[in-house]
Amino acid sequence: MYSYLKRIIMNTVVFIIVTIVLALLFDRVPSHQIDLFTFLSLLLVICIGACYPLKYGQVKRINVFWLTIPILYLYGLPMMLLYYQLAVIAFLLGRTKTGNFSQYPIYSLVFLVGPLLSYSLIKGIGFDFETMSFLQMLFVNSLFYAIFGLFSGVAFMILNKQETYLKAVKYKGRLFGELLYSVFFILLGTALYVFILMYGNYAVVIALLVYLITAKLLRSYDTLLQKSATLENVMEFQVNINEYETQLQVTKNFLQKVLLVTGAKQASIVYEKNAYFIHRNDQLEKRAIKQCQLALLQEVYAKKRVHDVKKRAYLQMEDLLATDLKAESLLVMPITQFNEPAMLVLESDVPFAFNKAQVDHCQLLVTAYKTALEQKSVIEETTYKSERCALTNLYNYRYLTERMKEMEIQFTQQEIENISVIILDIDHFKRLNDTYGHENGNIILKEFASQLQALVEETYVLARYGGEEFVVLLPNTTSDEALKIAEYYRQVIEGLSFQVVELEQQLKKETTVHVTVSIGLASVPEHTHHLSDLISFADKALYIGAKQAGRNRVAIYQEHL
Q1: DSSP assignment, residue 520?
Q2: What is the pTM of this model?
Q3: Using 50, 70 and 90 to split pLDDT, how confident is the model at 16?
């Protein structure tokens, strides 16, 4: 990002280059004289047109083509280019009270090279701007507008590194609107030239009134389209809530909708608890919060209002988020999620990119997002409780059977080659309950489950089968591999100790308890081709092969059991 001094130098260099080019054109290209009153009158009109640009597709556009085309015919190419440069300055001054010239080089060069290129190509084809019929003039004006429009569009996309301005919001009938937009300026410019020849400068005033009325109507129409598109996005977001499996998916789709509605380059949600989510390149990333982000979040909640921070007023803004994007505009909006302070942060590389309408649209999406999160939170909590054992927090029998059905389908489709099941049973657990009480028995079960979960790999499924029995599902694991894993579990558990509290003569006394486990296992396809048989086969191995053989051992299923 250029420093303030570098921008001044860049602007000065471009201004000097444009001035030299205009001076050379005035010296070498034929042009007609213009009196001071006409020059100032046209300048006033062109400044009004530039300061009140048409707005379509969330983008304000400089389009004084309707006035510069008559100037081309009446006073020549150099005068038209001069008025284009004056229009650029008026447009940039009109964007804010103090003006913003950070994009002056881009606009100035585009509105110098574009008309010059169009003029040269049309002259090269063989058309003479001095002598042509009305129909020829209409065709030439259309061709001039098309060449200039194509050049300026491509130039802005390349220089601003944007795909397209109109992708900000998906408008219905966008192509039709663009066509009307082009036809209007071509007809207005051609008609203005004819009326100037007939009625003099009074025609310019009439054309200006027509332009201002059209600009007002088009802005109103654009606002309606934005509201319609926003409501469509909000409704689509709400309708698709059930399709989002997690709160993270809800957040990702919310940020995508925000980007569509506002045209921002990047969107983030910053939380007070040392983390934030950032949406970049259609991906949702989680990062650590920075101190400046936390300070901004606290400021937002202290003032309880939306912040639209301009780079000129917030000098440390580039340090706010560690991104590849060098933001020119920043929109910060408070969001409270489950009583936790958070904020929505939108970045744009366009100066003064966000307006009140976009803020209102964001607030609609924020409301829908908060509702969606609350609904998803209730669903996730209900699902979690239905799948978990309340005591050990492990998966329960219901979840275990569902996963076995899924794995059976995968095994049938040959996505999984082997599946093994390990059943662990705590030896003499009834004796522990009788000796230390059921409350201490539950403490041992809970701690045992926690220790076992630390042993089991994430790719395996650990569940409480019932009582003191636990099951581990091992996809893509042969019986020999499962046997080694089960033996490892047994040895580790044998070395564990658990603390229980006994009440002896009305005094609490801590006692260390050690436990052992008996383990049975079976595998598909070694022992059966039906996954539904695995549990019963592993259970037989547990009770006959391990328990009856003395406990604290691992037994693998055998047909004679």
Answers
A1: E
A2: 0.52
A3: very high
